[in-house]
Amino acid sequence: MKFTVEFTAGDRKDLLKIHRYIVKSGHPFTAKQLVEEISKACESLSDNPERGHIPIELEGLTHFVCRQIVIKNYRIIYQIFGESVVIFGVIDGRRNFREAMQQRQML
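Below the sequence we write its predicted structure tokens.
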């Protein structure tokens, strides 16, 4: 069964910020490659969205059951709704995860 992968404005904004940050550090090719790798990983969730695990910071919270996959230093946060996978954000793994989720008003 194929799932539909949906992107939110928040996760698109995250990718743009990641790209801009890396370009400003003088690595435009690396920025492009990373954004492409993250985008491919998101799209690959259409085949097996349950392969991601529940972030340890969110275990036990019943009101928001999300999963994550990790690409390099970035956590792709998503939730499965029926036959759809909704990508909520791409968060730098070095950031405080709960704080980043609260800023998005997801906790």
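The radius of gyration is 14 Å.
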